[in-house]
Amino acid sequence: MKFFKKAISWLLFGMLALGCAACGEKKEPKEENADKVFASSIQKNADGTETFLVGGKPFLYLGAESRFEAYTNCDKAEYTNYEKYVKAAKELGCNVLAVSVDWADIEIEKDVYDFDCINKILGYGYKHGVKIDLLWYSALMCGDSHEWHLPDYIFEETPRYEIYMNGVEQPYIADSTNYGIQTLLRIDNAEFMKRETAVVEALMAHVYEWEEAREFPFVLVGVQVYNEVDAFPEKRLEQYSVSLGGEKITKDQAWKTIRTAMNNCAKAFKSSPYQVVTRTNLLRPDCADLGASAGFSPISRAVELAEMEYLDAVGYDPYLNDLNKLKQSIEYYQKNLPANFTHIAENGRVGSKGEGEYMNGEGEILLSVSMNTGYILYELCSPVKFDNEGYGQGVLDPATLEDYSYTDKIRKMCKALQKVGAVAALVNPSEFAAFNIDSSTGKEIWNKTVNTSSVSFKFTTSTGAMGFAIVYGGYIYAYSQGAATLTLSNGTFSGVETGYLNATEWVKTGDGTLSDNVLSFDGESVYRIKIDSVSGALTSDTNLYKG
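Now predict its structure.
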C-alpha cells in the first residue's frame, strides 16, 4: 500500500453502504508498501472535492484545539489531569482534539525518549472515542522558536539568526512568561534537522506499537507540522532586521528555510509505517476586502507549501466572525489551491475578552462544513493563565469547564453535523443547503428558498435558528438548531425518521412526519427523509445562501 500525496485512495471506499457516486477510483495497493498502515488520508473525489478518510472511510473532520503544552508550561498542570479535556471535547460534539505536545516532553535528555505523555493522550482519546491530531510546534510556532517547547540542548546549541531593532542587536525577541525566551533558530541547520528527524521517527515508531497493541483503532489521525509559519517571513522580518553572518535575509530566503525544514520534518512523519495526514496552518490569506487585519501570507506561499512532497494539506487561521468574509476567504483558498484539502485550523474570538467571543461560532462551523472545509475550534478551553491575562479564547470556562453563553449553540451544531458525518464529508457543496448563514451573523427571522439540483427547500424561522438539508444517496438529511419549518418541493417524499449515522449505517431512533411536505423541527433531532421521485432537474443555488 502506498500513500500518494493528495491522490485518489485505493482503500475499500467503493464498498461503503452510502454508494458515493462522487468518489474517485480505487487504486490497488503497491506490494513494496504492504507494511504500511493508513490511519488517515485525503481522497480526491471525481467532482473536485476532497474527503478526509480514517481507516479508508469518510470522516467529517470537526475538532477542537487544546493547548496541552500551555497547560503544562503556564498552569503547571500534569498530563494526568488532561483526560477531562478529551471528555469535554467529546461532549461538545467534536470528533478530533488537536493537542500540542512539546518536543521537550518527549526527548527529556539528549537521545533519551519518554512517551508517557503520548500514552496518556492516546489513551484518553481511545477511552472517550475522540481522535487525536498532534500539534508539533517544534522550533517554529507563530514565527518564533520558544525555549520551553524544546530540549535544552536543541535551544542552546542550534545556530540563531542575528536580530536587530532600530540598529541595535537584540539577544532575543522576548522573554515570555508563556514560552520562555523567544528567538529565531536556524531550523534548516543540518544538525537541527537530523535531531528533529530522530525524535519524530522515534515518536511515530512508538505510536505504531501503541496502535498495533490495540489492533489499530486509529486514534492518532493527523499531525500539524509547525504553526503559523508565515509569521516568520511576513511578520518578524517587518518587525526586526534579521541577518545571517551580517547579511540581512530576505522573505524569499526565509520561506526557503521554512520549506526545507518543514519538508524534512514531514518526511520524518511519513517514514513511519503508521501513516497519517500531515498538514500545516498559515495566517489569513491575502484576498481582497477582508480588511486591514486580513493577515500576512500571500496565497502564492500557501501554494508553494501545498506542492511539497511530504505535506498533505495547508490550512489557515482566519479569525473572522463575519460569515461573508469567512466564505470569501474559503473560496479564495479553494480557488488557488484546488487540489488541497482546505481546513480552518483556528477561528477563535476577535477583539478583547468579552467582545464578540464566538458571536456566531455555530454559523462559522456550518458554513465551513457546507463548503467542504475541515474545522478546528480554537480553542476548547484556554489555560487559566491566558484567561486571567485577558486573551483566553475557549468555548468552555477554563476553571470549571462550564459553558459560556454561546457554547450550547456550538454544541448543538457540532453534534448535529456529527450525526450526518459521513454524508457531510462526502457530499458536494451544491447538494448541501445551509439556512440562515447568508448574512454576517445570521438573522432572527429567515424565510427563504434554497435549491439543490433535485429538491427545493423553504426554511422558515422566527427564532434565529440555523439549519441544513443535505441531499445524498436518495435521502434528505435535515436539521435545525431551533424552532423552524422546512417545506420540500419538486418531488415526492416519504419515510421520515429521526436518527444518526453510525459510520455509514443509518440508525433509526424514531419516526417523524411530513404534513403537506412540511417538516417541523424540534430543535434537537436530525431527520432523514426518503426521496421517492423528483419532478425534474433544478439549478443548485446553495452557494448563494452561504456567507
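The CA atoms of residues 215 and 510 lie 34 Å apart.
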